[in-house]
């Protein structure tokens, strides 16, 4: 019996199909591989994960979409307004390592389902908070961030298990397209609901219904156990070595290290560290733009005399609608362009991925700086350069994740993603919304209150983002020096 199993395993381990000819010229019998799922089922699983990612980021950007209304409702300064997104992101990043640890050891479908249920319920509850309970509203945003962390940490690792490296970049690009699409839909949904109902609270009552649908689809369409789809692991499945919550081979259990050992190994991975710092700069810029850009555009239009100051109960949210549309369009185009550029350039340069990320960060920083400088005189030019800035930022989303997945060993990927989320948000978009608001407050405090200084304070504080973008490009350049060696190490 042992000899028969060896005969079956040999062609698989040598890269042949089970029915290929054996070394002696005889034909090996065909074998039905348990983990070789139909492509249709894999596509359904990806579709469910993409839908969940869409809802995740719609929820994330509802607050920026109606920021003027929320600021007026609770009577907040710029600093306290920025605190809303900061608390959300802090809770998100602090929860990410916990879910990374759980995702590497326990059933990921259950964790995903619990996260969707939790954040949908809290979002619905936050829609009933009154103006005298600002602190409870802040707390609710933090709890939503915890639920979101479960999804962002674990869903990419399921995609990594379903597809081999050749197809993985394409599928991850599709998955990450729903970051800008969800973000833009968040702005548009929030602004649309506030305008149609006259009450911004209704913006928080749509995504819970969508979350319920996502949970139902997750239960019905996503397998309870997911086996990593590589030829070596398929061979292991034939010999009966697959086991565990997500059908990971026992050889992983035999080499399972502690969480501290995993972290120590990742810290020594130069490509992982440098690309994560580059992603941190991306997160800083994206967080600041996502929170404040509609408000900045509104203040620029007020200074130019294009719109009157908001003195009504419900403010004009047209900038949120436009910015949401820009975010969706540039996000889709940028992610597709980034994935295609990576696919083509990898054939001629093994360092293509980090070089693409570096170039796009430098170009994004330049476009954003120009957009800020022309905002007081030409609002159309501002929109155009913001669109280009967001386009170049979006190029990097899928590429950065793919860098992580091929420079980190498979058994550490959930932990690596969790650490990347923790670091990039801790030093990135956890603080940038509050920092921009605090700088704006400080500038306003030194000058006579006026509409002009209300605009200029935001303009000057936003310049920080352009400089951070340049630093991000530098970190991606550093990544290119180490990526080849770290990739080989991960394969070993």
Automatic annotation (TrEMBL):
Keyword Cell wall biogenesis/degradation attributed: no
Alphabetically ordered keywords of this record: Membrane, Transmembrane, Transmembrane helix, Transport
Recorded GO MF terms: transmembrane transporter activity
Pfam families: MFS_1
Domain named Major facilitator superfamily (MFS) profile: residues: 45-487
Entry's transmembrane regions: 43-63, 83-103, 110-130, 136-159, 171-190, 202-222, 277-300, 320-342, 354-376, 382-409, 421-440, 460-483
Location(s) in or outside the cell: Membrane
Annotated membrane topology: Multi-pass membrane protein
The UniProt record lists the keyword Acyltransferase: no
CDD domains referenced in this protein's UniProt entry, alphabetically: MFS_spinster_like
Gene Ontology terms: cellular component: membrane
UniProt family annotation: Belongs to the major facilitator superfamily. Spinster (TC 2.A.1.49) family.
Annotated protein name in UniProt: SPNS3 protein
Source species of the chain: Setophaga kirtlandii (Kirtland's warbler)
Highest classification ranks of the organism: Eukaryota, Metazoa, Chordata, Craniata, Vertebrata
